[in-house]
Every structure is written in structure tokens, then in C-alpha cells.
Amino acid sequence: MATLLHIDSSLFPASASASRAVAETFRKAWQEQHPDGTVIHRDLAAHPVPHITADAHTAGFADPASHTPGQAAAFAERLRLIEEFEQADALLIGAPMYNFTIPSTLKAWLDNVILMGRTAGDSQSAKGTPVTVIASRGGSYAPGTPREGFEYVQTYLRAVLADGLGLDLEFIVPELTMAPHNPAMAELVPLFESSRERAHEDAAARAKELARRLAA
Q: Is 123 within any annotated ligand binding site?
């Protein structure tokens, strides 16, 4: 049976986090199709991975036989994350927008799993693996909106996940999540509600489609 690697990075619980709530819809639909499958859940807010260090970085380009004790220890943790990433049949990533980009905890995870010559570059060891990103945001940064130029979540993740790692990328974007809480955005609440409903529907549909594809 297939293995789903589920990465959450929101600071907030599902009751207060659009990315976690939509990801949970995906995960439940996936598990309905794969009751005997495996779900590996990494909550980067509760259990952040180490930010990459000089030892972890340089060890990735050196012969393991030449590693210093510091390099060996740092790279062992990095290698565990890389192997977990490579062995997944599908990825689900919750990526809320914080200050126009992704949470630093998610960036730390990416810095660990991106290894030129293995996961990135000419080899791309996980190439073709489907990844679904729940890219939630408090406002709207869609084309044609006033803040279109401030969108650094999808643009960055497309470059890293699709171009750099060769993954089969799809975004689900619940937006205007601050509308119910910000009086200045009150008129946007219906648009928020439509976006939320569509995101949950898309998440369930994407999970079922991937489950069928991987079971074929």
C-alpha cells in the first residue's frame, strides 16, 4: 500500500488553521482509500527539524569516509529526512503564508531534503512523486489583485518542488482566511467561505484521485 508523507507547518491547531484543516480533509479522504496504508505525519511547529548547519551542508558534498564527527552526526539527521522523503509515494504539505512567504520551519525541512546530486540537480531521486501543497493565506495574492507581487509562497515552492526536485506539484489555495476576523474585510467573508468550501472539495478530490492512481 502507498505511503503518504504529511508535513504541517502552521503555528496553530486545525481549529484555527486553514492549512491544517484542509490538509486533514485530504488525509481523511486518502485514508478512506488506503485504510491499510501508511501516513507519516511531521508537525514542524510541534517538532521542528534542525536548521541546516555548515556541518550538515558540507557533509552532503564529501565522501562519508572523510566526515568529521560533527559532519557525521549532522548528516545522519539530514539523511533520515531525505530517505523519508524519497520513500513516500505522495506528499501533502501545509504551507500557510507568513510575512509573504513560507514558515521558517518548512524552509528548514526543505533545506535538509534538497541535496544536489541526489534529490536535486540531474538525479532528482523523487522525480514524479505527486505533492499537494495547501497554500493558505489571510488575504488574496491572485493575479490581478493589488498584492499580486507579494506572492512568494507558490512562486518559491514551484521553483523548489517542481523545478528543483522534479515533483508533480498541485496547489490548493484557501484564501481570505482573515476576513471573518478583520472588520475591514467583512465584505469579503462570502468570498472566503467560497474559497474554503472549494479548498476542502479540491483536497478530497485530489486525495481520491491520487489514491486511485497509485493503486492502479
A: no
